[in-house]
Write a structure and sequence with these properties.
By secondary structure, this protein is an alpha/beta fold. It has helices at about 20-30, 70-80, 95-105, 110-125, 125-135, 155-170, 180-185, 210-220, 265-270, 330-340, 390-405; strands at about 15, 35-40, 55, 85, 140-145, 145-150, 175-180, 195-200, 205, 225, 230-235, 240-245, 250-255, 255-260, 280-290, 300, 305-310, 315-320, 355-365, 370-375, 380-385. The strands form four sheets. Strands 4, 6, 7, 8, 15, 16, 17, 18 and 19 form a nine-stranded mixed sheet that branches. A six-stranded mixed sheet has the order 10-2-1-14-21-20. The protein has a three-stranded antiparallel sheet with strand order 3-9-5. Helix 1 runs parallel beside helix 11. The chain has a domain at about 15-50 and about 210-275 and about 365-415: FAD/NAD(P)-binding domain, CATH 3.50.50.60. It is built from eleven helices and 21 strands.
Length: about 425
C-alpha cells in the first residue's frame, strides 16, 4: 500500500463537492495523477459564480480584495444601493463580523503582504490553463490587449502602482499609460469621457460558462462520475475514509474529499472543525449589443465595472455585494452598474440589456483563498478566491492535486492553508 509524505494512504478515489472552475480543475489534475474522481453539485456545472462573471484571466490584476480604496468609500457609501461595494444596512451578526475583519485588512501594508503571497500562484495561472488545453479541454483562452479607462486625470496612478508592485514582487507583468485618444483608438466603444488609458499586456479572457462546461466534458470523458443533483449537507471522516451525506439521504465515501463549494464553503468547513468565515460577495452582470464590440476586456476602475466581449456581444459586470448567497437578484444593483458604465461607452444601449445575472463569489476576511488540508486529514478545502476563482482555479487544482496524491505541501500553497 503506497503512503504519502504526510502518512496517509495514496488515494485511489476522491470526491469533489462543487462543479465550478475550482472543483473541476482539481478533478482534472487528480485524473492526471491516476485518481478516480466523483464530482457532486446541487445545481449543475458552472451554476454558481463561474457562469456570469467577466471571464478575465488576469493574473496581473489578481490581488487581495481588502484594499485601502475600500476604506475610502466610508460607511455612508457602502450602504448605498448604487455603491460598487455594498453592505445591507440590516446586516446580521455574522456579516458584521466579516465586514469588521475585512476592513481591518484593508490597509496598504496588509494588502501588499497578501499580494506577496498571491504572486507565486498568479505566476502559474496561465500555464495551468495551457495544461488543461493540452489534456483535452477544447474551449480556448483568448489573449488580447487589456484596456483600463479613466475619466479623471491622475486616477490611473493607483492601478499603475498595483501593477508595478506585482512586478516588483516577481510577477511578469507590465503596463503602459496612454492618452484617452489612444485608448479610444484601441477600443472604439470608449467615449470622450475617457481621459487616460492603461494598457496591460499578456492577459487573457474566456467565455466562463462555455469554458467550465468544456472542462466538465473533458473530466467526464476521462471517466469521472458527475452528479449534479447531490446537495451535500454534512461531511465526516471515519478511520478509513471521508464521507458526505446528501439531502436525499445518500452516503458517498472516498479516500479523500475536496470541498470546492464557493460561497457555501464556510458552512461545510464548520463540519470539520474550521471556523474560517467565507462570505458571499455577490457580483452582477448583463449582456448588451454594441456597435463596436471590443477586441478584449475593458476595465473601468473608477466605476468598478468590467466589460468582456462574449459571443459577439458584450458582458458588463460589477458590484461587490455582501449578502446571503441565495438572496434574489436586486435590480437596483443592475441599474447601478449600467449607470456607472454609461458615460464611458458609446454605441451601447445599456437599457437594452438581457441575461441579467447575480452570482456569489467566496470572499475571506484577508482576501486570500483557503487551499489545503483541513483539521480532518482526508478533507481538503479549495475556495475563497473572491473575484479570482476563474483566473486562479486551474493553478489551485493543479497544486492541490499534487498535495493530495503526494502528501507534500507546496510552498506556493502554504500561505493559503485553511488552518492558518
Amino acid at each position: 500500500m503506497a503512503i504519502t509524505a504526510s502518512g496517509q494512504r495514496v488515494p485511489e478515489h476522491v470526491v469533489i463537492v462543487g462543479a465550478g472552475m475550482v472543483g473541476l480543475a482539481t478533478a482534472f489534475f487528480l485524473q492526471e495523477r491516476g485518481v478516480q474522481v466523483t464530482v457532486l453539485d446541487k445545481e449543475g456545472v458552472a451554476a454558481g459564480a463561474s457562469w456570469g462573471n467577466a471571464g478575465w484571466l488576469t493574473p496581473g490584476l489578481a490581488a487581495p480584495l481588502p484594499e485601502p480604496a475600500v476604506l475610502a468609500y466610508g460607511i455612508r457609501a457602502v450602504v448605498s444601493p448604487a455603491s460598487p461595494v455594498y453592505v445591507p444596512p440590516a446586516a446580521d451578526v455574522a456579516l458584521a463580523r466579516f465586514v469588521t475583519g475585512f476592513l481591518r485588512h484593508s490597509t496598504a501594508g496588509a494588502w501588499e503582504r497578501g499580494l506577496a503571497k498571491l504572486v507565486p500562484l498568479n505566476n502559474i495561472a496561465l500555464e495551468s490553463f495551457d495544461a488543461l488545453h493540452a489534456g483535452g479541454v477544447n474551449a480556448e483562452t483568448r489573449e488580447a490587449p487589456f484596456v483600463a479607462a479613466f475619466s479623471m486625470p491622475g486616477a490611473e496612478e493607483l492601478l499603475v502602482h498595483e501593477v508595478e508592485t506585482m512586478s516588483r514582487l516577481g510577477l511578469d507583468v507590465e503596463c503602459e499609460v496612454v492618452s484617452g485618444e489612444e485608448a479610444r483608438r484601441r477600443e472604439p466603444m470608449l467615449s470622450e469621457h475617457v481621459h487616460t488609458g492603461v494598457l496591460l499586456n499578456r492577459q487573457r479572457y474566456i467565455d466562463p460558462g462555455a469554458y467550465v462546461h468544456s472542462l466538465a466534458d473533458a473530466v467526464v470523458a476521462r471517466g469521472a462520475t458527475l452528479d449534479t443533483s447531490a446537495e451535500v449537507v454534512d461531511v465526516r471522516e471515519t478511520d478509513s475514509r471521508a464521507e458526505v451525506l446528501t439531502a436525499d439521504g445518500r452516503i458517498i465515501g472516498a479516500d479523500a474529499l475536496v470541498l470546492a463549494t464557493g460561497a457555501w464553503l464556510g458552512r461545510l468547513l464548520r463540519r470539520v472543525g474550521s471556523r474560517k468565515i467565507v462570505q458571499a460577495g455577490r457580483g452582477y452582470s448583463f449582456t448588451v449589443d454594441a456597435e463596436a464590440v471590443p477586441d478584449g476586456p475593458v476595465y473601468l476602475p473608477e466605476a468598478r465595472v468590467a466589460i468582456t466581449p462574449i459571443q459577439g456581444a458584450v458582458r458588463i459586470a460589477g458590484m461587490m455585494e455582501f449578502r446571503r448567497p441565495d438572496a434574489p437578484l436586486d435590480p437596483r444593483r443592475v441599474d447601478a452598474i449600467a449607470a456607472a458604465a454609461k458615460p464611458f461607452v458609446r454605441g451601447v444601449d445599456v437599457e437594452a440589456r438581457r441575461d441579467e445575472w447575480v452570482g456569489s463569489r467566496p470572499v475571506t476576511i484577508d482576501g486570500l483563498p483557503l487551499i489545503g488540508v483541513t483539521k480532518a486529514p482526508r478533507v481538503y478545502a479549495a475556495g475563497g478566491h473572491g473575484m479570482w476563482g476563474v483566473t486562479l482555479g486551474p493553478a489551485t487544482g493543479r497544486l492541490l492535486a499534487e498535495q493530495i496524491v503526494t502528501g507534500r505541501h507546496s510552498p506556493v500553497l502554504q500561505p493559503f492553508s485553511p488552518l492558518r
